[in-house]
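Example record

One chain of 455 residues, shown exactly as stored in the release files.
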Amino acid sequence: MLSGAVGVSLAMFVIPACSNLGSLIFVLILMGWCMGCLDCLANLKIIMMFGKNVGPFLQAMHCSYGIGAFVSPMIASAFLLNRDCTPYIDGFTIETPTYKGSSDNQTGSDMNTVTLRIPPQPHRVFRYQHMSHLPKAFFILGGLQLAIAGLVAYVIFQEKLGKLKPRNSANDHGHTSHMITPAKGFNVDRIGGWLRDTCCACGGREVIFITLVTCVSLFIFDGLQSSFANYIYTYAHQSGVEGLQKYEGAVLDASFWGLFAAGRLIAVPVASKLTASFMLVINILGCAVALLLTIIFRWSHVMIYIGTCSVGLFVSSMSPTVMSMAEQFIDINPSITTCLVVVAALGEALCPVIVGNLVVSKGPSSFLVFCFTFSVAAILLYIALLLLGRQSDKFKVCKQESFIWLSGRQLVVEGESTFIKPSSIKYYSRMSESDSNMELGPMGSQDNLTDKHGD
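Predicted structure tokens for this chain:
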């Protein structure tokens, strides 16, 4: 994590010095690799630390992403020159009218058009480049990231001095898993065994299926988020909605990210009261209804704003919530976390490309249809994940008392941490390597020994 944080910061410092496309692509590749490492490791560590209680903590971590996405463009906008230099880089053409005779200038039949090609003007680009103060924005953002890297280094230093001690068995989360041991009577064939033990190393058949459904869900959620954020500006420019000015595309984009950050902030306390399953179904249905109303009333100026704000609010906590929901069914280990993060990143990268081609070929309204289709697919995936998850061994052992409200009494795996309702946690459970009875141990006083539970 320290290497990734330092790498992102250095890349931000180097970007303003890139003088050609090749060097910029190289720096962005390194920056993306570092960001991917940070994303994967941060999600993995927080899930390993809090286990089934990870909901509000995962929401809080992802809330930082929303706040950064909302604040960073505001920092950059203060240093923008607000001048389009594309014509001076690529060159441009102009058309001028010419006339056959001076006496008949008013007749259109005698008027011809001459096209003039203006070559690139690098001196003007150089002038505007030096008038802009945009590199300062990169330096500010890189400095903020470097400060975070300093905090990570401080934590490492404190751990080396022995002042910070890891929680018991936090690193053995995968070894104390309820799901590592396959169910009775389940014989894994040669290909399935290689996939489980060598490629994924994530557990039995039900674990692989739940991981697969969660990966596809994250692909859709992140793809929906990035597609809407990237093309709502384009839609404002090309849709032809009456009264919608071109500059309002930036307002719509800011509204989306503002409600996106607010939604993740609201999800932090909500996740400590409501189950991840209930939160996710509300998010998906809310997003689908908002997109459907936006499509129906797509010529309404007001509805565009309502739909944008609603989508930003409901889509905000989908990704962390589905990861929290999956943790209720299986124990997420490093292999599973890597799969989740990689597939989510693919959705965030590929879906805007698909939407871009649709907008060019089918028109700007196809952008809304694409997002609505993804929201319908998300409903089907949610049903599949819920049905598969309720058949898992971990869910049967730690079954929630309510679909809506978090239960006040939970069984937690040894090493998991919770700061939500510590007084209600009395026992931990650990599944042994065989199919023998579950081991129980007291976490409270000696008076609790008489309240032991069986399988």
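Notes: The beta strands are 92-99, 111-118, 412-413, 427-430, 439-442.
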